[in-house]
Design a protein that fits this description.
Two copies of one chain form a homodimer. Chain A is of the alpha+beta class and about 80 residues long. Chain A has two helices and three strands, in the order βαβαβ. In chain A, strands 2-1-3 form a three-stranded antiparallel beta sheet. The relative contact order of chain A is 0.34. The mean pLDDT of chain A is about 95.
Chain lengths: ~80, ~80
Amino acid sequence: MKAKVYVTIKENVLDPQGNAVQGALHSLGFGEVAKVRIGKFMEVELDTADRGQAERQLKEMCEKLLANTVVEDYRFELEG
Amino acid sequence: MKAKVYVTIKENVLDPQGNAVQGALHSLGFGEVAKVRIGKFMEVELDTADRGQAERQLKEMCEKLLANTVVEDYRFELEG
């Protein structure tokens, strides 16, 4: 079973990496760029066919390792 | 106009960060994790209402800065 995990910085937390990329885009002539926020996109393959189990495990993985829930939000989608 | 940009490592390119995360997940007891690939997820706000222009600009931004097209693929979605 495949999952897609999205980890994003919480709305009220500063994103210096995003600000740097926004500045670089402005320097390259993309003046219309009003905001950039950078997060992570992870593809995880699980050796299980049990959807409920996969969801429970993904939630636990996100809480324990994949996201820092103090400053980041996460969500995931299961495929197939 | 808001866009979501996904940058992923090409299928035939090694992903040491993904392998490290997979190893860490195994150490935490998630033995079912068969594969992890890590990419980037970017939210970009553009000060334009012209969808065609936004698409052209996003493509150019990805080619020039957001993705390294030698080893990474990208795709984006425009909202609203």
